[in-house]
Structure formats: C-alpha cells, structure tokens
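Translate structure to sequence.
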C-alpha cells in the first residue's frame, strides 16, 4: 500500500487516546473488479514512549457495525467488550461494510447460502486489503511484530478466524467472540477439505474461541473443533448458553473461564504446545450432524499453561503446568492433573526431520516417538500437574 494512497481524516482523542482516521483507494493487486475506497482507524496506546514498540490489536467488526460504530462502542464498558483495545496496545479498526462484495470479510457465514466462489484457499480482495493495511501500519507505527492479535465479534469473529488463522507469519493469537461461522477459516486452512498440492500455511496463531450452543450463529462449530484437533492446531474453546453475547459480564455469568487465558502473553515466534485429547476436556456441544449434544457450559484445553521454550539444534525444552485457582477465580473446581497429547509448534532453531526418532523426557517419565511427515512431534498422554514440569525432546542419533 503506497503512502500516496492513504489520506488522513480528522481525528481526535478517544478515552484519553489519540485516534487517527485514514481513507484510501484500492490497489490493483488486491483483485477488486472496480476501484473502491475504504476507511480504517488507528488508536494509540494511552501512553507512548519514544523508542518503544507496542502490540497491535486488530479489530474485525460485526455485521451490525462498520468501522465508525465499532470505534464508537469503546466509549461504554460492556458494549462489544472485545472491541476495547488494551491501554498498552495500538489498535487497528478495519471496515468491510462499505462494499457489498467485502461482506463477511471474504468468507461464508454460518447461516447464509454458501457461495462457492468464497470457498477454498484463494483469498478474496477484502482479505488482500486487510493484510496490506496491517503491513502499512507496521511501516508507519512502532509496532511489536511479535505481538499482533486478531479479535472480532460475530461476523468479525468469523473474519478474524478466516483471515488470521492461515497467517501465522503475522498474527500471534486470535480471540473470537461468538464467531458467526467457521467456514471461512475451515476453507482457508483446509480443516475439513483436501489440501491442494503444494499448499501449506505457517504454524497458525493460538485460537481462543467462546461461543454459545443456544446461538444459531455458532452452527457448524464442530468443524473448527475437529479440524483443529486433527491438524494439531492450538485451540482453547469455551461455550455456554449465553446466546450471541458481546458483554463480558454476561458471558462470565455462564462461563467464567472464557477470559482466563491472556492472548497478550503469546509472541509470534515463541514455540508453543498444542494439547489434544485431554481427559479434562468437556464434551463439545456441537455434533457433526448439527445437533446440540450438551446444554451445559464447558471448555477444551482451558487449564493448560506453559513457559518459555529453550531450543538447541536438535533439542527443545518447555515447561508445562496447569492453571491454578490462585491465578484465576472460578466457580469451576480446577483439576490438579490432566493427561493430554502434547505437540510442539513454532520451533525456531530446533527442527526434527520427518520420520526421525525422538527421545522425550518429562520429569520421571521418558520414551521414544517418531516425528510425523511434517516433522511434528507428539508425545502421547502426558500427565500435567499444577506444579511445573519440563518436557524435553531430543533427536536420537543412530
């Protein structure tokens, strides 16, 4: 995106933070059939220090909003809380309402007729525009590129998943509030469809999804849960009968674990563990046939935590533990131990060859596993406790 294409609009101060508005024309490489114009907003941190870099909070609005009204929600606590950027972050507010073809951020919704043209792995013009806008913000503001987070409500939750899940080279984590469909993300990441020859995505962002089984817009969520589990992508899922809620207090009354994980703790190039098949997971309410299996609140992977990994050329160590009641107050009784399969992703200097034998150690446990065809290593059914224990993986030299 050229600086000449960006025209500043009158800004001001919003909740003690500098707010800037920008207007720009589309670029040919984005793929629009006709030239279009767009608006986005940049909200500054409350306090800025010269020489410092700051996380970026990328906001995708819902179908009931546009970029202007999404920014306006931040005046009032409880009004689409996920739009409210943390005080120590920059925030980028995007728009997809101005152009009909941009609607649903380029993907398909949960309830409307599926448009085959929006399926598959090819990006729509709006998706190209969004990524270009984020890169422009990188160039013009002191952004910590290790800490870029995609967030959204309803249609925006669907868009955040669809645009960010396949861009682990940009985003560290995603937080989706009652996303109105997961088809967009499933298509772009081939969660339930054949993978085209030569297609791949970077190790994806960690996903936090909180949705409601009494919300029709959450239809099809089984695709997300199944696809993320099978591909060993990191998902923390929360649900309950809180409807299509966007108010944290209302959600907390039903499931008080929904915000127990801080996405700001995730850095884009830090290795992280993926937990699957945990014995502490609740039954996912969305069945593959579209029916609801459970009316109660629940979670997947809510209790797992980890520390900073240490890597060598052929080995990696990472501390694993469970969330404790000292860290988060809840009506739920926290487990003191949990068994789960553990897969490490986003390794930076340690790379395991496909098919190689890997020795693992976890406190007084040890064993051998084989790296899969992608070089991913999964240790089955580790018993993780509140007390931190170190998992170490090392290539076995023949």
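Result:
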């Amino acid at each position: 995106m050229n600086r000449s294409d960006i025209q500043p609009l009158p800004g001001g101060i919003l909740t003690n933070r500098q707010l800037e508005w920008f207007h720009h024309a589309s670029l040919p490489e984005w793929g629009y059939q006709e030239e279009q114009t767009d608006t986005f907003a940049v909200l500054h941190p409350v306090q800025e220090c010269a020489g410092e870099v700051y996380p970026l909070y990328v906001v995708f609005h819902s179908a009931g909003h546009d970029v202007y009204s999404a920014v306006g929600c931040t005046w009032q606590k409880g009004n689409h809380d996920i739009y409210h950027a943390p005080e120590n972050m920059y925030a980028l507010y995007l728009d997809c309402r101005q152009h009909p073809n941009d609607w649903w951020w380029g993907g398909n919704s949960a309830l409307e007729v599926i448009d085959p043209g929006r399926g598959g792995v090819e990006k729509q013009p709006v998706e190209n525009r969004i990524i270009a806008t984020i890169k422009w913000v990188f160039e013009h503001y002191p952004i910590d590129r290790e800490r870029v987070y995609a967030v959204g409500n309803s249609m925006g939750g669907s868009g955040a998943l669809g645009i960010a899940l396949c861009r682990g080279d940009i985003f560290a984590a995603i937080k989706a509030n009652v996303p109105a469909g997961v088809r967009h993300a499933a298509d772009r990441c081939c969660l339930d469809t054949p993978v085209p020859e030569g297609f791949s995505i970077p190790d994806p962002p960690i996903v936090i999804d909180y949705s409601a089984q009494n919300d029709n817009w959450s239809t099809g969520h089984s695709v997300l849960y199944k696809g993320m589990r099978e591909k060993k992508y990191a998902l923390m899922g929360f649900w309950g009968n809180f409807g299509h809620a966007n108010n944290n207090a209302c959600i907390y009354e039903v499931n008080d674990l929904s915000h127990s994980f801080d996405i700001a703790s995730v850095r884009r190039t830090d290795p992280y563990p993926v937990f699957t098949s945990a014995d502490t997971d609740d039954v996912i309410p969305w069945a593959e046939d579209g029916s609801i299996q459970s009316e109660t609140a629940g979670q997947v992977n809510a209790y797992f935590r980890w520390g900073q990994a240490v890597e060598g050329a052929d080995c990696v160590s990472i501390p694993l533990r469970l969330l404790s009641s000292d860290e988060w107050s809840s009506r739920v009784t926290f487990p003191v131990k949990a068994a789960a399969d553990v897969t490490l992703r986003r390794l930076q200097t340690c790379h395991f060859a496909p098919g190689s034998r890997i020795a693992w150690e976890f406190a007084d446990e040890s064993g051998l596993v084989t790296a899969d065809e992608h070089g991913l290593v999964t240790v089955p059914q580790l018993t993780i406790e509140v007390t931190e224990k170190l998992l170490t993986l090392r290539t076995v030299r023949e």
